[in-house]
């Protein structure tokens, strides 16, 4: 418990500094670092320890983050995604021909490592470099962590019906609903701070809708990464954060929440 509290006391302010107080390149560096750590963690979880796919995943993580920071054209990003996919399939075939362990699980981990995870983290960079970026980038963090905390306490107090017993036995429907309520509630409080503290125009109904949708997506992210651990018999993705596990144990929800917020802020015209 002491190690968890110490890591939280250091990690939360550090995350806020990297995302908000430093120039946007600080956010890019932070997201790229998390993505590269996650590459190692996801491959380790499925039992792939060979260096080439890990290096390829890290290269993809760095490139996707850089493209987001530079505001590169979507076609450039799409071209890299296609190239990465072909390289990953080529590795799969090459490893099979040499009778080395990679397998379909490694291929799936590679798609997670080089595209989905850095894509989710890069969405934080897109938010940070957008209008009102210092404030927008915190919204997926607030929703993800408020949802996690709200689900935990609501589940402890009211949980009776299992949400996904095979995937995550401790999660309940009541906990999930409680997490959504807390995520929406804290998002609206954050909106009040932005409106009256920083004079940023907001649509509160649209903010509530964005937070609700993102809260659902965030919980899906949590369950998805939990399912990977359960399928491969892994307790934690790593030991980067004592008492908390690895980078993926802390950012699993954010990886799903950040792209959702990135799309919804624009689609729903939340900040205007």
Please tag this protein with its features.
10 helices, 272 residues, mainly alpha, two-stranded antiparallel ribbon, 78% helix
Short overview:
This protein has 272 residues and is mainly α.
What can you see in these coordinates?
The chain is mainly alpha-helical and about 270 residues long. Helices cover about 80% and strands about 5% of the residues. The protein has a two-stranded antiparallel ribbon.
Instruction: Give the averaged pLDDT, no decimals.
Output: 89
Measured on Cα atoms, how large is the radius of gyration? 19 Å
**Main sheet: strand order:** 1-2
Number of helices: 10
Specify the helix fraction band. over 70%
Give the overall silhouette. globular
How much of the sequence lies in strands comes to under 5%
Element-level helix/strand string: HHHHHHHEEHHH
Oligomer: single chain
Low-confidence runs of at least 5 consecutive residues = none
Largest sheet: 2 strands, antiparallel
Label the structural class. Answer: mainly alpha
Number of strands: 2
Distance between the termini: 42 Å
Helix-strand layout with pairing:
Layout: H1 2-21, H2 24-45, H3 51-70, H4 74-97, H5 103-129, H6 133-136, H7 138-158, E1 162-164, E2 168-172, H8 173-198, H9 204-231, H10 247-267
Antiparallel strand pairs: 1-2
């Amino acid at each position: 418990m002491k190690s968890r509290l110490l890591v939280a006391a250091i990690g939360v302010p550090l995350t806020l500094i990297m995302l908000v107080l430093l120039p946007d390149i600080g956010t890019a560096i932070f997201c790229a670092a998390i993505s590269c750590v996650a590459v190692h963690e996801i491959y380790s979880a499925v039992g792939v320890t060979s260096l080439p796919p890990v290096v390829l995943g890290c290269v993809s993580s760095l490139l996707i983050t850089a493209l987001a920071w530079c505001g590169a054209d979507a076609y450039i990003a799409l071209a890299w995604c296609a190239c990465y996919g072909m390289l990953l399939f080529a590795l799969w075939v090459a490893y099979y021909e040499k009778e080395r362990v990679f397998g379909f699980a490694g291929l799936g981990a590679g798609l997670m490592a080089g595209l989905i995870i850095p894509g989710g983290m890069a969405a934080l960079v897109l938010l940070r470099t957008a209008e009102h970026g210092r404030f927008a980038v915190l919204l997926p963090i607030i929703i993800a962590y408020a949802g996690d905390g709200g689900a935990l306490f609501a589940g402890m107090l009211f949980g009776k019906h299992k949400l996904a017993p095979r995937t995550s036995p401790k999660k309940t429907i009541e906990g999930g609903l409680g997490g959504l309520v807390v995520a929406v509630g804290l998002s609206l409080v954050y909106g009040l701070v932005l409106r009256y503290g920083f004079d940023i125009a907001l649509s509160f109904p649209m903010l509530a809708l964005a937070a609700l949708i993102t809260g659902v997506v965030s919980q899906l992210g949590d369950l998805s990464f939990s399912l990977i651990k359960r399928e491969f018999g892994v307790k934690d993705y790593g030991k980067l954060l004592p008492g908390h596990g690895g980078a993926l144990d802390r950012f699993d929800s954010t990886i799903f929440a950040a792209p959702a917020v990135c799309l919804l802020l624009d689609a729903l015209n939340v900040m205007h």
